[in-house]
Amino acid sequence: MKAQFNATSIELAAGDITLETTDAIVNAANEHLAGGAGVDGAIHRAGGPAIMAECRKIGGCPTGQAVITTGGWLAARYVIHTVGPIYKGGAKGEAGLLSSAYTNSLKLAATKGLQSIAFPAISCGIYGYPVHEAAHLALAACIEFARKNNGIKLIRHVLFDQRTFNIFEQEFKKLV
Ligand code: ADP
What we know:
This protein has 176 residues and is an alpha/beta fold. The protein has helices at 38-47, 49-58, 94-111, 131-148, 162-175, and strands at residues 2-5, 8-14, 24-28, 66-70, 78-82, 116-119, 154-159.
């Protein structure tokens, strides 16, 4: 499924984000940029040690913010590391932080002059965010960004499992 918002196409895809050929892929990192399980581990395994070497130099990233490194061995030239919130019931500012993780990643990509970016379902794994709410926030943040900015031509949401893909599709249909 895809839809156009001004100069930007927003798409949903199923699969493994480490195989994406967009200018940047986004990592659902932790505040220490220490690597880990889930998509974070997959990106470091596929991209090799150059990514972690840069993460160590950067040192960390607060929740809701984003930093950028090389893509190492990946097809994508860059990895944007953002930190989504750990879901603690929804009254701890989680929604604002999740929206910020998307928006700050997009701003960083635009600042670097990148034209295409792929996101995983940030916070939807170990961090426990309810997927319907997370999908709505993710897509709404990207649509708002696309309506206000025109440097990024493609934003792709790469969903790893069928359930997450289906929920993103349901929420996307409501927003288009
Ligand atoms: P978080 O800690 O932000 O919840 P996770 O990595 O645990 O991050 O999960 C985020 C989402 O990424 C989950 O939907 C998970 O299924 C998905 N995921 C895991 N591996 C990959 C991958 N290789 N490509 C794309 N998405 C992935």
